[in-house]
Specification:
Layout: E1 5-8, E2 13-17, H1 28-36, E3 40-44, H2 61-71, E4 77-82, H3 84-95, E5 100-106, H4 117-131, H5 135-146, H6 153-171, E6 194-199, H7 204-216, E7 220-225, H8 232-235, H9 237-251
Parallel strand pairs: 2-3, 2-4, 4-5, 5-6, 6-7
Antiparallel strand pairs: 1-3
């Protein structure tokens, strides 16, 4: 199965990977700007998000992304990713380093990261709300947790819609296919230059991951946004779009 996706533009390929709070629509504010800057822009929905159904077999998100690139005959790509998409992007870049030319990671997750007590408490609260069939409560928990103070009402409504849809798709699944256990991902194999962004108002896990990537990757720099929560590309889209296009212009010019 090919992941649901959109492709537009000409030039070096840029793949946008979404947060697990959202789907590929989270990149609406950046889509046209990246295309108009001279890139072939691609975004996809991971399994159980947006227009991609749940899995019907064992799978990994990284292999799904690789298969999508193969189907589109894209040999090398710039990876721009948020949150869980950042975790997937790091795995792709580590397992197939010749396929990734540049990384831009917004508040990324990381393979092998052990969650803090704060992140575990969030997960337990979300599980309890879903087990109680309080879908609205679980959606609101995510909106309150992951959006920073700069997010306006329209942005909060957009995230509500994407998160609710993801929950509905995932909860409707009649069979689950756990992702197979994999050997430890060696991030040192990543050759692409990386911009790792964190937000001051995010959970400590993601702030620490972004900072730590400068130690784990051979060519990475960390930038903390003093106004941001966990989803800065939605909170201040114009500012983050400019940040991304500047990074791409320096590392993968169109």
């Amino acid at each position: 199965m090919t992941l649901a996706h959109d492709v537009e533009g000409d030039g070096p390929a840029v793949l946008l990977l979404h947060s697990s709070v959202c789907d590929r629509r989270m990149w609406d504010p950046q889509w046209s700007a990246l295309r108009d800057a001279g890139y072939r822009v691609l975004r996809c929905d991971l399994r159980g998000y947006g227009q991609t159904p749940m899995a019907d077999r064992p799978y990994t998100d990284a292999e799904d992304v690789r298969d999508l690139l193969d189907a589109l005959r894209i040999d090398r790509v710039v990876l721009v990713a948020a949150s869980y998409g950042g975790l997937v992007g790091l795995e792709v870049a580590a397992r197939w380093p010749d396929r990734v030319s540049t990384l831009a990671l917004l508040c990324p997750g990381m393979p092998g990261h052990q969650p803090s007590a704060e992140l575990r408490a969030f997960g337990a609260r979300e599980d309890a709300l879903l087990e109680a069939d309080d879908l609205t409560g679980a959606v609101e928990l995510n909106v309150q947790t992951w959006l920073g103070p700069e997010a306006d009402d329209a942005t909060r409504d957009r995230v509500r819609q994407m998160q609710r849809h993801a929950f509905e798709v995932q909860l409707a699944a009649t069979e689950e296919f756990p992702k197979p256990e994999r050997d430890e991902i060696d991030l040192g194999k990543i050759s692409a230059p990386c911009l790792a962004v964190s937000g001051r108002y995010d959970l400590p896990d993601f702030r620490q991951i972004a900072a730590r990537l400068t130690e784990l990757l051979p060519d990475a720099r960390h930038l903390e946004l003093p106004w941001a929560g966990h989803l800065p590309s939605l909170e201040r889209p114009a500012e983050v779009t400019a940040l991304l296009t500047d990074h791409l212009r320096e590392t993968s010019p169109s």
